[in-house]
Inverse folding.
């Protein structure tokens, strides 16, 4: 079932006694504005991706930053790299905060310049031009929904522009997007959004329950969930 809007979700949650939820685009900013009790990162970014019911209402948290960094830093060393984040929503803001706070020289860009400027204020990133120019990045982050199923033929950039070291596509369905396929053929290393989704799920589960189940539980659940969407 899909919620029509934030009010619809909260009404549904109250009716069925839901005590926790994962929030995804396009509701992250709206939920943050509705829930006063947010963690410091959620307040900084202005978006949340996790809700927990407490005695006097709801608490919210943003674990996008942790989820973004965990698969990246466990696989790559990005010291001295130039990063470009494409997008201006909650995911783009989280990615730029994660990179800037990690000491990476970061530029954020979007189709609408004013949106990129607003997003850059959150992290202290620079604002760049869109489309992204070749030769300007080592790490490219797609924080837009471009390439998400069923629009799998779409790609953020033409293949000729993919000349950096690593392309990190936050889209997780499909697990290997056209952007990642073309980046790999161009000699870039790649990282997909499914790994970020799994890292987020681990952090959410810890916040909801206080427990830490085996990491394989989340990866198996994510893979099974994706398999259902393509059947």
């Amino acid at each position: 079932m899909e919620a029509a809007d934030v009010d619809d979700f909260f009404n549904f949650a109250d009716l069925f006694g839901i005590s926790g939820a994962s929030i995804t685009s396009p509701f992250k900013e709206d939920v943050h504005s509705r829930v006063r009790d947010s963690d410091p990162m959620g307040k900084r970014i202005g978006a949340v991706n996790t809700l927990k019911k407490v005695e006097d209402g709801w608490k919210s948290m943003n674990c996008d930053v942790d989820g973004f960094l965990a698969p990246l830093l466990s696989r790559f060393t990005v010291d001295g790299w130039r990063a470009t984040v494409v997008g201006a929503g909650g995911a783009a803001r989280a990615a730029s905060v994660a990179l800037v706070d990690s000491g990476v020289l970061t530029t954020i860009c979007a189709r609408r310049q004013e949106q990129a400027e607003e997003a850059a204020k959150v992290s202290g990133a620079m604002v760049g031009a869109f489309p992204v120019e070749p030769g300007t990045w080592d790490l490219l982050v797609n924080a837009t929904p471009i390439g998400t199923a069923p629009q799998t033929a779409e790609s953020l950039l033409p293949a000729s522009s993919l000349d950096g070291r690593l392309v990190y596509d936050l889209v997780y369905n499909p697990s290997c997007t056209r952007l990642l396929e073309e980046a790999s053929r161009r000699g870039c290393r790649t990282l997909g959004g499914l790994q970020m989704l799994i890292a987020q799920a681990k952090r959410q589960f810890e916040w909801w329950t206080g427990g830490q189940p085996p990491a394989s539980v989340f990866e198996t659940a994510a893979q099974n969930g994706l398999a259902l969407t393509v059947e």
Observations:
- The two ends are 18 Å apart (CA to CA).
- The chain is about 45% helix and 15% strand.
